[in-house]
Amino acid sequence: MSGCYEGLQALLTELNAKALYVPCGGHALNLVGKCTVESNLKVGIFFDYLEDLYNFLTVSTGRWELLLRKLKPNQKVVKRVTGTRWSCRYDAVVAFMKGWKEFMEVLNEIEKNKCEKSENQRKAAGFKKNLSKFESVFIAVMWTALTGAF
Questions:
Q1: How high is the mean pLDDT of the chain?
Q2: How confident is the model at residue 150, as a pLDDT?
Q3: Does residue 21 sit in helix, strand or coil?
Q4: DSSP structure class, residue 18
């Protein structure tokens, strides 16, 4: 861990001045993946949609239960996208791709449910529209292909 005044590097140097600091290669690779996502506007927007979808579904126990009922046994649920680990984005995309039909069914039910607030109905419609676009599907397939090889 870097940081010359706090963190692991500072503690080790305090205990032994001859201790060498070696930057973590795994963390550097994760930062490359994070910067790759952030360097392309459309890819960044796609992952923002996935993060927003995660938040939208998990903030309500009713919506979360609806999703769990739709998913097949052992099917992955949507995951958080934020963080520096490339694997969190990979897990989120794989869960989304394998459960795309189920996610769309859940969003459709929320959109048509008159008991839902109109704001939530609009959000569900927006998620359906944005995540059904060709570019969203293309990015999901591309990201899985790029990161799945590791």
A1: 82
A2: 43
A3: coil
A4: T
The whole-number average pLDDT for the span 105-129 is 95
Enter the pTM of the model: 0.73
CA distance 122 to 125: 5
- The candidate with the shortest Cα–Cα distance to 95, out of 146, 39, 43, 53, is 53
Q: CA–CA separation, 23 vs 1, rounded Å? A: 7
Q: For 26-62, how does the pLDDT look when each residue is reduced to its tens digit (9 = 90+)?
A: 666 667 767 777 778 888 888 888 899 999 999 999 9
Q: Is the pLDDT confidence value at 113 over 70?
A: yes
The identity of residue 54, as a single letter, is Y
d(CA 69, CA 28): 39
Q: Distance between CA 44 and CA 78 in Å, rounded?
A: 17
Radius of gyration of the chain (CA): 20
- Residue 33's SS3 state is helix
Rounded to whole angstroms, the Cα distance separating 1 from 88 reads 20
| 53 within 8 A of 95, measured Cβ to Cβ | no
118-131 helix and 100-112 helix, angle to the nearest 10 degrees: 150
Token duo for residue 141:
């397939």
